[in-house]
Amino acid sequence: MAAEIMIGIVDDDRSMRTQLVRLVRSMGYNARGFASAEEFMDSDAPGKCSCLLTDVQMPGISGIELTKSMTVKYAEVPVIVLTARSDPMLEDRALASGAVCFLRKPIDTDLLVAKLAQVLGF
């Protein structure tokens, strides 16, 4: 059942994206990584995702803008926003854009695993 779940991961940092894809796959879920919001939105993934993990700061469309777009077009897909930035207002902006969760990098993997299980209903 978990293998039918697909998690989209959008992060311009290839190392972070690879780590997140591996983590999600180790949980038994399918995962697809994307280097940009544009790459993600131009694929078939938005309509197939069970959840989206996105970085905030990326070239082109930001994670906040991506979250807003997903909330409008795919409201049923929960979005978890990730960032290494220390801007105190960023969490408020992410949640206001429709994110269900906001996590700071470096990612606490236990917390991410728990949040994924929560938003996926497990």
How many distinct domains? 1
Largest sheet: 5 strands, parallel
Question: Which outline best applies?
Answer: globular
The CATH topology turns out to be Rossmann fold
Strand content: 15-25%
Task: Specify the CATH class.
Answer: Alpha Beta
Distance between the termini: 11 Å
SSE order, one letter for each helix or strand: EHEHEHEHEH
The computed structural class is: alpha/beta
Total number of beta strands: 5
Give the full name of the CATH homologous superfamily: Response regulator
Lateral arrangement of strands in the main beta sheet: 2-1-3-4-5
Q: Number of helical segments?
A: 5
> In angstroms, what is the radius of gyration?
13 Å
Overall mean pLDDT: 95
Give me the CATH architecture, please: 3-Layer(aba) Sandwich
Helix content: 25-40%
Unreliable spans: none
